[in-house]
């Protein structure tokens, strides 16, 4: 069967990764969560004290980029790939609110983006891939066969993210999560390099009032029409 490339972009906590995982599983495709890669670089910068609420030592991070190795390793028990930073499984750490609070500053650095985009394009060179992020349909795979752009109102998204964090045992406040979602969206959409925008040929999906199943059905119809 023909293999296609599916690019899924959109605002934070719009359920991109849940949908992307479902589609990839159904089609037997590779799923790549590019946010995990930016989060891992942010964690690396935090570990070295190059970024916090007060400072961003951009040049130190840029100089160290050749030493940063990112790898996805499939975990058969969980049914998805986990992020490894220089050989260490950092899957849990990169999902924390602390990392969420720093990641958009790191993702605005062009040198960071160039490194990750190259790795992402390599992963998708044989098609048969579902990739989610902010610039997949615009920069990473501008020729993707299917481009989706997901939105939902900020309160719905913050509620989803808050429930996810609480379910994992994180001690967070809803207002803090809402603030993070809004701040990240602002930085991501206004940065100079690869801002979060809908590709002209992307199909917009507002899932504020759609169930996960309804959304999956709609998207699978689009996918099937391309196979
Ligand atoms: O997808 P997730 O919310 O985990 O992404 C975390 C952050 O990584 C985003 O807020 C954005 O700053 C950055 N990102 C990006 N480009 C991508 C994926 C994520 O700039 N393709």
UniProtKB/TrEMBL annotation:
Family to which the UniProt record says this protein belongs: Belongs to the cytidylate kinase family. Type 1 subfamily.
Location comes to: Cytoplasm
GO MF annotations for this entry?
kinase activity
- Name this polypeptide is given: Cytidylate kinase
Q: Does the keyword Manganese apply?
A: no
The answer to whether keyword Nucleotide-binding applies is: yes
Question: Record's HAMAP family?
Answer: Cytidyl_kinase_type1
Which Pfam families does the entry link to?
Cytidylate_kin
UniProt xrefs under InterPro entries: Cytidylate_kin, Cytidylate_kinase_dom, P-loop_NTPase
Q: Which amino acids does the record list as binding ATP?
A: 10-18
Highest taxon above the source species: Bacteria
Which organism is this protein's natural source? Flavobacterium agricola
Q: Per the UniProt record, which EC number(s) apply here? A: 2.7.4.25
User: Per the database record, which ranges form the Cytidylate kinase domain?
Assistant: 6-224
Q: Keywords assigned by UniProt?
A: ATP-binding, Cytoplasm, Kinase, Nucleotide-binding, Transferase
Q: Which reaction does it catalyse?
A: CMP + ATP = CDP + ADP; dCMP + ATP = dCDP + ADP
Report the main location listed first in the record. cytoplasm
């Amino acid at each position: 069967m023909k293999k296609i490339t599916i690019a899924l972009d959109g605002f934070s906590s719009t359920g991109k990764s849940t949908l992307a995982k479902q589609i990839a599983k159904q089609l037997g495709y590779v799923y790549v969560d590019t946010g995990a890669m930016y989060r891992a670089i942010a964690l690396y910068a935090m570990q070295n004290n190059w970024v916090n609420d007060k400072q961003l030592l951009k040049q130190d991070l840029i100089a160290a980029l050749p030493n940063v190795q990112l790898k996805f390793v499939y975990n058969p028990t969980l049914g998805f790939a986990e992020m490894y930073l220089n050989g260490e499984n950092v899957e849990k750490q990169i999902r924390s609110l602390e990392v969420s609070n720093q990641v958009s500053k790191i993702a605005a650095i062009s040198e960071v983006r160039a490194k990750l985009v190259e790795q992402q394009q390599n992963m998708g060179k044989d098609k048969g891939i579902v990739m989610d992020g902010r610039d997949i349909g615009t920069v990473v795979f501008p020729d993707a066969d299917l481009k989706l752009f997901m939105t939902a109102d900020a309160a719905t998204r913050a509620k989803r993210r808050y429930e996810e964090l609480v379910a994992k045992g994180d001690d967070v406040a809803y207002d803090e999560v809402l603030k993070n979602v809004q701040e990240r969206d602002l930085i991501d959409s206004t940065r100079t390099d690869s801002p979060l925008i809908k590709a002209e040929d992307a199909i917009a999906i507002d899932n504020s009032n759609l169930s996960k199943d309804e959304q999956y059905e709609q998207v699978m119809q689009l996918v099937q029409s391309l196979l």
